[in-house]
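Researcher: Good morning. I'm working through a list of sequences from a screen, and I'd like to move beyond sequence-only analysis. For each chain I'm collecting a predicted structure so we can compare shapes side by side. This is the next one on the list. No need for commentary yet; just the structure.
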Amino acid sequence: MTHSDAPRVPAQRTPAEACAVPLELRAVVCPGFTVSVAACLRYDRAEPYAVYLDNHVDLDEPITWMFARDLLAAGLNGWAGLGDVSVHPGAGASSETLFIALGGDTGAVVLRAQAVLVRAFLDATERIVPSGTEGQHLDLDGLLHRLRDEHPPEPGR
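Model: Good morning. Structure tokens for this chain:
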């Protein structure tokens, strides 16, 4: 039996509520020149569809981006995302690079990550909340209560 013939064992569930993977990203300044950026990918069962990317630059607080876990996963295999966040693998079938492009009103940056670390992060998120079961982990009643409490109705309405 070869490795490809071996039965696939599903990832085992973990009782963990969250996970985080520190990364050293490379900001692509221009072709052939990059700058190191300390970063962290975070995931929390309370927000099962989202991942957070904290970029630790020379500020008091990190710059945090939130985007879909599915977007990050899809970007490992091909171009994914439109607008402010897009993700795609490096060139070549054996590339172990993942590019994450972040853009907004004040500028844009392309970050280069090691794909193996992003895969490990996504594997950890799968053990917390398997893909396709995210809806079972949403607290919609709690969300509605928070929204209602944050924006009370105006008097007389």
